[in-house]
Amino acid sequence: MKAVTWQGKRDVRVETVPDPTIQEPTDAVIRVTSSGLCGSDLHLYEVLTAFMTPGDILGHEPIGIVEEVGAGVPDLMAGDRVVVPFQIACGGCWMCLNGLPTQCETTQVSAEGMGAALFGYTRLYGSVPGAQAEYLRVPQAQFGPIKIPEGPPDDRFVYLSDVLPTAWQAVAYADIPQGGSVAVLGLGPIGDMACRVAQVRGAGRVFGVDRVPERLRRAKDRGVETFDLSSFDSEKELVTAIRDQTDGRGPDAVIDAVGTEAHGSALAKLAQQATSSMPRKLVGPLMERFSIDRLAALHTAIELVRRGGTLSLVGVYGGMADPMPMLTLFDKQIQIRMGQANVRRWSDEILPYLTDEDPLGVDDFATHRLPLDEAPHAYEMFQKKQDGAVKILMKP
Ligand code: NAD
Ligand code: ZN
Ligand code: ZN
To answer: Which of 295, 316, 340, 365 to mutate to test the pocket of ligand 1 (most atoms within 8 A of CB)?
Structure first.
C-alpha cells in the first residue's frame, strides 16, 4: 500500500510499504478514505525529530471502512464506516473506565514513561504505524473505532478522530462560566474549533488571537472577537487590549491552542532548531532535561487570564524543565488543566452536533482536500501557512 513516511527533518515521502494485517484478536484493519493533517504532525516534521525513525508512517486522524476484524471485535464487521480516535485504548482498564483513555493502562508506553500509545507519533508513544496511508491496522478495535452512518461526506465525521474531542476537552477544561469569557490563543484547526465549541457551549464572549490573516478572518466570520498578534508591539499591549474588553480583569479562561512552536521567542527558536539538527542519541536526553519549548503563548496566557481564572493548555508541550512564573501563577490563583484529548470521553456528547444543520461548521472546515500522493506538498504548505491552508484532508 501507499503511506506517508517520515524520512528526516522536513522530509516526508509517499512510499510503498507492506499492507497491514490482523495480528491480535482485538485488531481491525480499515481502508482509509480520508486522513487529516494536524498541527501535531508539524512537531514531528521539524522539532521532535529525535524521537522519530526514518520510515515511520505518520498520521492519526482517519475515517474509513472496516476491511477485516479479529475474533475479539464483536461489534464491528467488514463494511462498517468508522472514525478512529488518535489514541489507542482498551476501554476496560481503570483509566479507560474513568474517562481517561489517553492514560490507558493496557497501552501505556511504560518503557518511555508515557501514557497511551498514539497512532503515528514517535517512539515515545509506541512507534505505532500511522493513518496517512491506504490501510491502517487498528489495535484495541473492540473499543476505539466510532461507528458512524453512511451518507454524509467524510468531512462530517472525520474530526471526531482528534480536532473535535480536542477542542471539546479544551473548552470543558477551561471551565468557562455560563455567559463568561474565554480567550483562545492560536487559530489553527484546534483553536478555531475551540472557539466554535465555546460558542455552542454558552460562552458569552470569545476572543481569538493569531497572526495569520485567513485564520483571523475565519474566526471573525463566526463571531469571534479577533486580535492580530502582529499588530501589537509587545505581549503587554495585547494583554491590555483584551483586558480592556473584560472590565480590566482579563477573561475567565484562556485556552492555549499554540503549544511548543509559538512565534515570539527568538532565543527558544534557536535552541529548538539546534536540537533538531543534533545527532539523535544526544538530543533525547537533552530534551528531557532542559526546556525545549517556545513558551511565548503560555506566558501570554498566564498574564492574560483573570485572577482566579482557568488556563486550559491544549497545544502540545514537551520540555521537562520549562521555566514557569510560579510567583504569578500562585499570586493570581490560577488553575491549569492540560493533556491529550480523551476522545471516547467526549465523542457521544459531540455526535448530536454533527447534523445537516452543522452548528460547528465541520462540512466546510477543510480548506484543502488533496490526494495522498501530494503529502510532501501538503506538509510544506501547512507548515508555511501558504495558500490559505488551515485544515488539510488527504484522500488515499
Ligand atoms: P497549527 O500549528 O495550525 O496552529 C497553531 C496556531 O498558533 C497557528 O495559526 C499560529 O499562527 C498560531 N500562533 C503561533 N504563535 C502564537 C502566539 N504566540 N500567540 C497566538 N497564536 C500563535 O496547529 P493546530 O492543528 O491548530 O494545533 C494546535 C496545537 O494543538 C498544536 O500544538 C498541536 O500539537 C496541539 N494538539 C493537541 C491535541 C491534544 O490532544 N491535546 C490534539 C491535536 C493538536
Ligand atoms: Zn491531530
Ligand atoms: Zn485502557
So the answer is: 316
